[in-house]
Write a structure and sequence with these properties.
3 domains, about 0% strand
Length: about 400
Amino acid sequence: MPRRVITILEGESLVNDATGLIAYKYAVGAVMLGSFVLWQAGLQFLWVAIAGIGVGLIIGQIFLWVHKITPNNPTTDTTLTFIAPYVSYLLAEEFHLSGVLAVVTSGLFLAWHSSEVFSQQTRLQAYGTWNTVLFILNGIIFILIGLQLPVILRNINDIPFSTLLLYGAIVSATVIVVRIIWVFPGTYLPRISKKIRTAEPKPDLRLVSVVAWSGMRGIVSLAAALALPLMINDTTPFPNRNMIIFLTFCVIFSTLVVQGLTLPGLIKMLRIKTDGKEEEEEHEARIRITSAVIEHIEENYALLSDELLNQIKTKYEIRIQRLRRDVDNQRLNEDQYKELLEIRQALLNKERAFIIEMRNKGSLNLEILRRLENELDLEETRLILEREAK
């Protein structure tokens, strides 16, 4: 898929879930209080969302400062990445603001600055740790679905199961159809503005169709349903709570199975392929970074011995020329080898600086940045192991 479509869907999953949970909060409050005033809720919605984002930025800045002043330790840095979202959420909720938007904001802020404050060991460890934790959490959530469903069905046994399935099908179809109806005008109506038409090419109808069909629901929907209060007061149960949870299960099942399993077929049927822009951007980034490092070598290390200079430049010359040939591994004495390792470390740092500079200028997206960083992290790890072995 073109990278733009993937970015839209990933960004939507963050922002839509967050704003949806704010609306959900007011809906639950309306049921609990028995009243709802639209204009008041609208103003409170804006305040809760904007202030929640503000809290996220403040917490992100605080944790960025903490990362900078604490020792560069992968374990403590990884631990802080777990603490930060909880602090953001709890602080925002303490002031009745959007904890979810605070978490999203602080996460995006710290992710943007992670290249500057995390060592290569921290990045490798944190990514591995988070991938494992997220996999476990996803598994636990869907296990909870299975455990909750029999209990829910027993509590709504006054309605025939066939009727429940019909309700589930109607709600699921509504969720899918309403998204499709919304996405197409939401994509093309803003193009009434001449400024938007000039700045952005006309969206491909096939890509818009894929976005419209990519409305899968999952963990956030289930968490919202399970978070409904059991009672409105001491004597009155929350109305239709079990039914809401069952319908949520139906929506999750329908969208994940029907839309999820048919999405690859839709992409093939529409003959959608990657536009190659990401590969071109990555190739251009590698060329520019390598060229800049070679220039840096020629400007700053020209007085080195030929043996050292050849060792240093060979890697970058091979990379930029895409030639497959063996590196001339000449034997170096201990002092030369130590100097070689120090220079290689300095050049790795220079590569990182060029990557961050390109990112800050907007000429390098975060996906490619992470890929390039991962390669540098692995290379730096090898360099550390060589130094320790020597």
